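Researcher: Here's a chain I'd like modeled. Treat it as a single chain, no partners, no ligands.
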Amino acid sequence: MSEGRTIDVVAGIVLDESRARVLLALRKPRQHQGGRWEFPGGKLEPGESVDAALARELDEEIGLRPLEWRPRTTLEHAYPGKRVRLHFVDVTRFDGEPSGREGQTLRWVAIAELGALAFPDANQTVVDALVAEASAA
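Model: Modeled as a single isolated chain. C-alpha cells:
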C-alpha cells in the first residue's frame, strides 16, 4: 500500500488555439512511469498555490507563461509506495514557444488521438474525459 505523505502535483493541459490539440511531454525512462506521455507540470513547493506552481513549472520545464487557465479537476492516486494529488488545469492561452528545457521530448497531439498513447495511470481519467469531450463536440 502507499506510504508517507501525499505529493501535490500540478499538470497543465496546454491547448493550442484551435483547442483540438494538447501539448504532451515524454517522461524519461529513468523516471517513475518512464516512457509514458504526460501533461507538463510538477510538484508544488511547500506553501505554493496551484496557480503559482503552474506558472513556475511551465516556465521551468517548457518555457511557457500561462496567460489564461482554469482548474479542470483534482484527483488522488496511489502508486505502490507513493500517493499523489494531481491538480489538472486547462491552459487556454499562453506566451512563448514550447521547448523541452529539461531535455524531454514535447509533442502536440490531437485530442482525438490521446487514447492511443500510454499515460501514467493517474492521468487516465482525465485523458478519457478529454477524448470524450472532443468526440461530443
